[in-house]
Amino acid sequence: MNSPVYQTVIVSGGFAELFTALHLAHEHYSRSVILIDKDQRFCFKPLLYEYFDGEMYTSQVVPHFWNYLKVVESSLCKIECNR
Ligand SMILES: Cc1cc2nc3c(=O)[nH]c(=O)nc-3n(C[C@H](O)[C@H](O)[C@H](O)COP(=O)(O)OP(=O)(O)OC[C@H]3O[C@@H](n4cnc5c(N)ncnc54)[C@H](O)[C@@H]3O)c2cc1C
Predict the structure, then answer these.
(1) Whole-number average pLDDT of the chain
(2) Which of 6, 15, 39, 49 is the most buried (most CB within 10 A)?
(3) Nearest alpha-carbon partner for 43 in 54, 35, 51
(4) How far apart are CA 30 and CA 27, in angstroms?
């Protein structure tokens, strides 16, 4: 089975990486892009205090990456960013 070859690989889905992926998708970046994270969810750390206090929900503070981009493999969370 052939695995797709990606021209751009973003390692981890922290702030900078997720927003880079979203920016590239928004700008219709011409090369194939994949973002790889060990988790399935983005963690919006500045809101963790409110989350653990019960003021905010899981979906607001640690949303699934699939809310933003297309997840193509979920064991190690691989996300195609521009397809
Ligand atoms: C409670 C709290 C409140 C904060 N408040 C603020 C604030 O108000 N303002 C501010 O500017 N900063 C704040 N920060 C700091 C800010 O959250 C961090 O500076 C920022 O998240 C760092 O971004 P990062 O991308 O380096 O790391 P992270 O956001 O930690 O992202 C790292 C990513 O790498 C992934 N990863 C780790 N290991 C692997 C691996 N082996 N393979 C694949 N993926 C991996 C993780 O799953 C994660 O998605 C706060 C931090 C905390 C903890």
Answers:
(1) 87
(2) 6
(3) 51
(4) 9
